[in-house]
Amino acid sequence: MTYVSVLHAMGDGTRRELLELLRRQPHAVGELATALRVTQPAVSQHLRVLEHARLVAVRPEGRRRVYSLAPGGLQELRAYLESFWADVLNAFAADDPNPPAPPEAPATPARRRAPRRRRRSRGSR
């Protein structure tokens, strides 16, 4: 049940802000701390939670660690939420095994064009 860690990770406002920043482009921890006006250790701690939930990926670049958005955790959350939709549709189908056919759209009569008015010539007032 990895979707639980995703729900937990996204339950914090700072982590959602981090995801929004990473959604646009990858960032180093220092850049994220500056953008959010939060200390680097706090940002690192939030990023660890997001990484555990598979929402971010990290790659080393020299002495820096650059974070980017990773879709893995969101795919698991999406699958979990879609399972509810499948349950709802199944329950609906079980409630009425022979649903009525949708009504056909009534035939609309062809629109008649209004007769055009004759324009008066400028000189005949």
What does this structure look like?
The chain has 125 residues and is mostly helical. The chain has helices at 3-10, 13-24, 29-36, 40-52, 72-95; strands at 27-28, 56-61, 64-69. The chain has a domain at 3-73: Arc Repressor Mutant, subunit A (Orthogonal Bundle). A three-stranded antiparallel beta sheet has the order 1-3-2. The radius of gyration is 29 Å and the shape is flat. The termini are far apart. The relative contact order is 0.13. The model has no long low-confidence stretch (mean pLDDT 83).
Key terms for this structure?
single chain; 125 residues; mainly alpha; Arc Repressor Mutant, subunit A; three-stranded antiparallel β-sheet; 5 helices; 52% helix
How is this structure best summarized?
The chain has 125 residues and is mainly alpha-helical. Helix content is 52%, strand content 11%.
- Tell me, rounded to a whole number, the average pLDDT: 83
Question: Between the first and last Cα atoms, what is the distance in angstroms?
Answer: 84 Å
Q: What's the CATH superfamily of the domain at 3-73, by name?
A: Winged helix-like DNA-binding domain superfamily/Winged helix DNA-binding domain
Order of helices and strands: HHEHHEEH
Shape: flat
